[in-house]
Each structure stands twice: as structure tokens, then as C-alpha cells.
Design brief:
By secondary structure, the chain is of the alpha/beta class. It has a single domain, classed as Rossmann fold (3-Layer(aba) Sandwich), CATH 3.40.50. It has 13 helices and ten strands. Strands 3-2-1-4-5-6-9-10 form an eight-stranded parallel sheet. A two-stranded parallel ribbon has the order 7-8. The protein is globular and about 55 Å long. 36% of the residues are buried.
């Protein structure tokens, strides 16, 4: 039986966390929520697929590998951030949750990683609350994340759209959807992942210690005109019981965006 199962192992966050767990010597099974392998999965496969402690399984096979000691890392963040229809994502979550409930083993530890959104007052926010109310008992942790950036960020997110030289229209669309109050570089998140998971709280919002991280990243990529209509105030459905985890930013926006640019340059050569 695997130590960890990562749902979305060839996506953005799922890949980085899979690699991080493997570097810690854990046995990891990667799988998918919707059958898709993830954007540019071949490059990610080269980085982790050859590790003897990693294997990729279809969802049905993955269910047979679950024991009460397994930790399931569920990166809903990735499926919503790459532009999947939220209704389809929620439907897949509910189907998978029913399969978990039917397992003939003690409930495993399930960790949900969810994006903070610019405005959760609409359909997406309502669906989030419905999922939480239906599966609250099953979940060990529900972790809300701001914009995470770094290598392999999907092109549907604004920093990667800017780095790839997407059209003005595509960049504007990405900026309009982005959570703009905060941004965290991927390595800084990974370095504090154990502390976040060791926290006794069930619902945790990850926040930067340093201010203006998103806008300082954006200024590395976009001009004043592109940013003139961007608001850095977002409406979140934060509950009283939600606890903020203050993350120490060791990577500056300038450095983080440079690393992400360099990664894209190497991928394109």
C-alpha cells in the first residue's frame, strides 16, 4: 500500500507535491480526477515517473491501493485553475467521494487543496459550500490557497499567460479570473507543507507574511495599462472557524518570476 495518493499528480501543484513527497522517501501513487493527464505531462513524467517509489494508476486501480494509513492529497486547485468547468469538477468529486465511502477499510486521511477565488458569491461558492457540507466528516483538512506560481504553472493563469506571450485578450481574461490578493512561490509552499498539515485546525487559509506579493509579481510581467483595471480586493466566503496559516516568503516576486520564465524558456528550446 502507498504512503500517499496524489489526485492530479501530473497537474501543477499535484506534480510539485508528488516530487516533494518522493524526495522525502515516501511511496506515491499518482492518479487523475477526470481521466486527463495534465498539461505538458510528458515533461513531468520524466521528472518523477522514473522514481521507483512512484507509480501512476487509473482511478479504479488507485481505490484498491487505499488503506487506513494512506494520505490522499486531492488537488482540486489544479482542476479549477486550469479552466475546467466547475460543475464538472464538483460532479467528479462527488462520484469519487461515494467510492471512498464504499471502501471496506477505515477512512483514510483526505486533504483537499482548494483555490481562493476572486469572488465566491456565485455558483462556484455555492457549490464549494455544498461539497463541504456533504463531505466535512470525511475530510481531515480543507486548505485554501492563494495564487501559487512557479515552474509548470498552467497557461490559464495570468503569470504563465504573460510569460508565454499570450494575446492581450487572453491575458485580460486570465487577470480577470485571478485571485489577486496574494501570491506564494511553489517552493515556499512546499517548504512549509508539513507545518500546515501538522496544524490541528481543519480549515486553513494560507497567507503570505509579506504584503503585496501578487501585485509585485504582476509588475514583473504586465504594464500599467494591463493592471489598471485589476482589483487586489477579493470576496471570499471565509468562515469564523477558518484559521490563517502565515507563510514565510523566502522567494521574492522578482526571483520567483525569473525562475518561472527560465523554466518556460528551457521548455521551449
Amino acid at each position: 500500500m502507498a504512503d500517499a495518493i496524489v489526485i492530479g499528480a501530473y497537474e501543477f501543484l499535484g506534480f510539485h507535491v508528488s516530487k516533494h513527497l518522493l524526495e522525502d522517501g515516501l511511496e506515491v501513487i499518482g492518479t487523475t480526477l477526470d481521466g486527463s493527464m495534465g498539461e505538458e505531462y510528458e515533461g513531468k513524467m520524466l521528472e518523477i515517473g522514473r522514481n521507483a517509489n512512484f507509480c501512476y494508476q487509473k482511478q479504479a486501480e488507485m481505490l484498491d491501493s487505499i488503506s487506513e494509513n494512506t494520505v490522499i492529497y486531492f488537488f482540486v486547485y489544479d482542476y479549477l485553475k486550469k479552466g475546467n468547468n466547475p460543475t464538472d469538477v464538483y460532479a467528479e468529486i462527488q462520484k469519487l467521494a461515494q467510492k471512498w465511502k464504499a471502501l471496506q477499510v477505515k477512512q483514510p486521511r483526505i486533504l483537499f487543496f482548494w483555490p481562493l477565488n476572486k469572488d465566491e458569491s456565485g455558483e462556484q461558492g455555492s457549490s464549494m459550500l455544498e461539497i463541504y457540507s456533504n463531505f466535512e466528516i470525511m475530510l481531515d483538512k480543507w486548505i485554501f490557497l492563494p495564487t501559487i506560481y512557479g515552474p509548470w504553472q498552467p497557461e490559464s493563469m495570468s503569470f504563465e499567460a504573460g510569460i508565454r506571450g499570450k494575446s492581450e485578450h487572453e491575458v485580460a481574461q486570465a487577470l480577470n479570473k485571478e485571485y489577486t490578493e496574494d501570491a506564494v512561490y511553489i517552493t515556499d509552499f512546499l517548504n512549509e507543507l508539513k507545518e500546515i498539515l501538522d496544524s490541528p485546525e481543519k480549515r486553513i487559509i494560507v497567507k503570505s507574511l509579506k504584503k503585496d506579493q501578487w501585485i509585485n509579481c504582476a509588475k514583473q510581467l504586465f504594464n500599467e495599462k494591463q493592471l489598471s483595471s485589476v482589483s487586489t480586493t477579493c470576496k471570499n466566503q471565509i468562515k469564523r472557524e477558518d484559521i490563517s496559516y502565515i507563510l514565510r516568503n523566502k522567494t521574492s516576486p522578482k526571483e520567483g518570476i525569473w525562475i518561472q520564465r527560465e523554466h518556460r524558456r528551457l521548455q521551449d528550446t
